[in-house]
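Limitations
The structure tokens in this dataset are predictions for the assembled complex, not deposited experimental models. Users should treat interface geometry with appropriate caution, especially where small molecules or nucleic acid strands are included. An illustrative entry is reproduced here so readers can see what is and is not provided.
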Amino acid sequence: MDRPAASRRARALLETLLSAEQRAELRWFKGFRIVKGNETYWISLDRKVRAYNRKINFARGFCVAPVSHEWIPNADVAITFLAWLTADVRSFEFEAVALDGFFPDVPPADEDLPAFFAAVTRSWGRPATRDGRIRASRLFDRSRPTLPTVQEVLALRAPVAPEVQLRVAGEIRELRLALERQRLDRLLRAHGVEAPAVERAARMKVMAL
Amino acid sequence: MGKMVILNETGHSELAWSTGDEESVAEAQAAFLHLVKENYVPMERKPRAYDDEFVKIERFDPTLGEIFWIRPLKGGAA
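Predicted assembly:
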């Protein structure tokens, strides 16, 4: 059996194991969530597992893979992670090597987590060229992920229904504004600016962004 | 009626048995032992209302519904 056919069979099997919500996430964001207490694990179809801990607002990635001498489809790898995370999360955490984590500037809401994970994926992964090689200039691009741009999120999950595009664009814009307001508050406090007129003017400027 | 799902390079392969059919149970038992030797980990799939759950098992039980054969994990591998 050729690899595309094997991948299709594996994907079909994976979908039978998921809830309707997880299937929707898989379709739009190429991954799905598993919640274990404060920890939300993200299993993506690129053979990676990431996690976000809501209690301490901390996101991290894992370096872990199934032990196999033969190639297995991405969806089978996802099933392997799914099985280990639901059956024995301690063994998973024991075996997996945690990669560089970070504290997001704005804690993502539960419903935003799929977009959040999809957006930070590129910062954790090494971008490759079309022939599979990694560009030297971007080899160790480990810059801390910030809020994704609308284009970045949409590029990761095209084709996307127009109503979803609009909703995501609105949410990201609100997050950006919240971040700007937070930054402005800190700046004003640092300079001891109390004048409401100055603050109001600055806020108006931010709102106009 | 039970089923084994073995993840492999074809996506997956399946082996079914029936509790009333001794031959198929013996065949499944033999496959179970073989796959354990191959370092696969057997997990029972337990369907739930919203998503499924997997439970690790130690020995073959013909009354189980579905057994998934999962590979062990290795950290630090690419």
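Some entries come with short summary sentences. For this one: Strands of chain B lie at 2-8, 11-17, 41-46, 53-56, 66-70, 73-75.
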